[in-house]
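Entry for the shared binder. Reason: the reviewer on the internal report wants the predicted structure included alongside the sequence.
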Amino acid sequence: MKVLKIFLYVLVVLAVAYLAVVIYFYSQDPFVRWDWSKINVNDVCYPKHFLWGTATAAYQVEGGFSNNNWTWWENQKKADGKPTIQNNDKCGRADDHWNLYPLDIKLMKQLGVNAYRFSVAWSKVMPTPDSINHEALKHYQDVCDSLIANGIEPMVTLFHFTYPLWFQQLGGFEKQENIKHFVRFARVVYKALGTRVKFWVTINEPVVFAYSSYFAGEYPPGKTDPQLTARVALNLLLAHQAVYKAIKSMPRGEGKIIGIVKNVTQMDPYRRFNLLDNLIAYFADLNFNQAYLRAFKTGKFHFFLPGMVNMKQDMPELPSTLDFIGLNYYSHNAFKFTGNIEQSLVALPYPGEQMTDMDYTIYPEGLYRAIKRVAKLDKSIIITENGIADSLDNRRYMFIKRSLYALSRAINDGYHVRGYFYWSLLDNFEWNLGYSKRFGLYAVDYKTEKRTLRQGSKAYVETIKLWKNKCVRKN
């Protein structure tokens, strides 16, 4: 009987400890699920001076690229001989946004937006390490002038996944000494556009770039090295810090609003009460989200994957190099322990939810969770990307309405969000997925370059009209 009591006591202690650990993980970023059948998605309100925008990236829409890490990557092969880009697609002329930007600005006006986020192509501005293409800079000046003339606020991104091939050949962001080239590029662009552009993004989704390029090998240069992944992730933070300080030191720099864009994807356990699933989700989150958010909060960077990499770096100046945090949000991922660490770190769609055309689900509640999380940095927040790949256009309307409801709910709960940019204005070249995914508010016929507003996109137009007419907050 005594042995049985001890056995039962041990079982109870283990069960309590098990539940305590699971509850701890849950408390870090509590799962949120709303009953949408009981929610009026038009019961929304936003600040009076709010940025309503759309977003693009140069390589994905402009066309006419050469001497770029992605034009090189499009012509490589995977280890199995398959093309690096789905369907062997090539970017080519893309949406020809380089030439058709006046038309696209008219399309923005039809949407009712008052802001536009775009990137400046480093490989076009600096085709060699020691040359500057002033015609390319003049093009971006013309784009900004046209936006401003149409009442649209430009937001410039300096690094959105692409750079000149010469920079890659030097080792890219693998080497800390190469950061000086990025700083020089930033100075050149700021000198050309500084009087026109108030909002600046240094780097788009640094963790996504580091992971996709150096861990998964899906982006150029196609490496699979955990140590390099951590090194690049760190160097991108150092690059942001250096560019922030460089711009702020230039004429009129102090008046500029500079941030970095962080993609936040919740890493949820596949089975909510499974301890091993929680542990895997925790380690995935540790590097994808927490390492970067903690670095901007505390000045301490720590990238850790058990048995693979453990990199630490003190960065005391980093927390002071952020005027706003750009938040990209699309969905959440699920993680399921399989017995193999590397296999278990492969993200899965969360079970029981409707899929997008990507390998993740529709989860608008996650936008609320992401806002709540980055708000801990005590910086203003701009949603710099949020959108859906939906070639059938049968989920876009619902996605937009629910996402904008989640945004309004976060604002009403006191979180300081000052803008929302839908991804994307146009269908585009979706990196290693080529032209197979359709994110655009406007569908693009790539044979004729004709743009057509999708029916589902009207949800965005309707919400902006609501804001203009009756749902403006006083503060």
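Summary line for the report: The chain has two domains: 1-30, 40-473.
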